[in-house]
Amino acid sequence: MFNTVIFREYDIRGVYNKEFDKDFAYLLGRAYASYFYQKHGKKNINITLGHDARLSASEIKASLSQGLQDSGVTVHYIGLVTSPISYFTTFEFPNIDGAIMVTGSHNPPEYNGFKISVGKGTIFGEEIQELRKIIEAKNFIDGKGSEKTLDVFSAYVEKYKKEFSQMKPIKVVLDCGNGAGGIIARKLYEAVGLKPTILFEKPDGTFPNHHPDPTVEKNLVDLKNQVLKEGAVVGIGFDGDADRIGLVDHTGRMVYGDELMVLVSRAVLKNNKGAKIIGDVKCSDRLYDDIKNCGGVPVMWKTGHSLIKEKIKVEKSPFGGEMSGHIFFADRNHGYDDALYAGLRVCEIISQTGKNIAELLEGLPEAYNTPELRIDTTEEKKVNIVKTLIEKFPESSEYSLNLIDGVRISFPDGWALARASNTQPVLVLRFESWTKQGLERIQSRIEAIVNPML
Ligand SMILES: [Zn+2]
Predict the structure, then answer these.
(1) Per-residue pLDDT tens digits for 111-130
(2) How many angstroms does the Cα of residue 319 sit away from the middle of ligand 1?
(3) How far is the CA of 77 from the centre of ligand 1 (A)?
(4) d(CA 416, CA 288)
(5) What is the pTM of this model?
(6) Residue 314 C-alpha to ligand 1 middle, in angstroms?
(7) Which positions are catalytic?
């Protein structure tokens, strides 16, 4: 049983036993092997299979594994892991042809889903629809596979232990939010010489303490308090499958995704002169200006972690990220979004410079901005509102338009973004200005058009 809405832009995801069930997981296993054969002409492949902390994980995993095996796949079961560790296996284990991660990411506990790697890349868009078509046509290859277990943690920790061997100890607090990150965060951070205090370390699919989404301010309350209590220099939060990161500075202030990108891109550009740095359309002009000022080439791209990851590859960029906390390092890593790794890079910058986050962001002009505003609407309205805004702001000397993803209108003293979410019936807005009055003016000018249409 499944509802086709689960086939989304970047992954397959829905409410378990309502929008898909274990029989679907079996069919997905069969479809994966069949898709791989269609695309690469290879049967009897080796893939890793991991999952996050959700309660439905083991049931889904068992069916998925059976489906894969019945289409000839050797399943290497890696257990409870983060999504980035699932990606890691496709880069660091030469015999592995792909990976499936069973995860509901930061969604509520009743959700679950699949992030799917074919070769070294995660599939998205049309490729995900291909899997649906194979399932609907029952166009499966047959075979006789098997399942074995594979320990990935030692290779993972060993790799980064070497890389960060110069790390000086700093006081850091981690918040795993009872997500999958807790399975390995302590081992990884202690291996590089840090002694983090870790909140909500034990993976628990009911998420009993707070929702595992560190880019929403209300989920950072415990992390803020602990940072202040301990006088830590930074607090780092991870989402449910640890591919998104959120930061709190030493004063307990939430650091936005684009500010985090400013401090990292400054460091990355020191060793990658003239490099392209990728951000999404939700990021502040201050990020793009700062990249330029540091000798880099800013590239604004569409929102969506698969799209940013792809763009980094195409542009041979060392670093990129999204406002939402997906942060990608091709510099010294494999170009995917590993929040535990990104956290280590932040710790490394702090430990090398001896500066706190406020000091590392020095020189960044002041700005007044909103966070990302997500407004529930309908599939139809979200598209119409963006269209209407484009019509209401024809080319003019007063402002300029960027239509890469939705519409981003740049005024002399700030900008407004409106885009239709790829994954939900949601309109995304964000506003920024260099003055408080400017922010109010820009926001009310756009909202005067948007609000009556909702
Ligand atoms: Zn996630």
Answers:
(1) 999 999 999 999 999 999 99
(2) 19
(3) 20
(4) 15
(5) 0.94
(6) 23
(7) 105
